[in-house]
Write a structure and sequence with these properties.
This protein is an alpha/beta fold. Helices cover 33% and strands 16% of the residues. The protein has a 6-stranded mixed β-sheet with strand order 2-3-4-1-5-6, with helices on both faces. Helix 5 links the parallel strand 3 and strand 4. The longest helix has 15 residues.
Length: 199
Amino acid sequence: MNEGDFLIVVGENGVGKTTLVNALLNRIKPRSGDISMANHLRIGYVPQFRNVDIDYPLSVRNFVSLNLLHNWRPWLSRKERAQVKRVLKQADLEKIADRPLGLASGGEKQRAYLAQALLSRPQLLILDESTASLDNEMKFELLDLVSRFQQNGLTVIFITHDMDLAQRYGTRYLMMKKDGYESGPINELDILKGGQSNV
């Protein structure tokens, strides 16, 4: 995989897609083999859609800002506030920045997760079935946004069962199987050639 690729990871349930994500995020160690990545690679992660209770206390802005609150200060510096403002604009969340996250639409909530991930200026963005519970309009809206960053050099790994999205956004694929894997340019993915809609 090269810098700026949009890698689609597909495969049946149980073949290890979640394990791969957890290994890339350094949450687990592989039982065998190695994962080789550049030192100090900044990784952003957007999970599968998680509904947020209507009474969730944080605003969209404060939720996005959580990615910066890893030190002793309970407030943001001027530079950090500028970072948050920039990423809210990039994710088209400026107009609802002060709205409670629980009152945002499903697509807006998922864009807030994306903005939170983008706040650290990642070199690699992992989307873990991040569009699974969204309607088609929201799926395209989210991935159009991701695609703009990818075209500017961001490398993306997208775990999905949706072959329409795979074909529209992917540049390469990784097909995981119980007995191994195959990979290549997205136009060589057999299930796309065969017209199947999901894996």
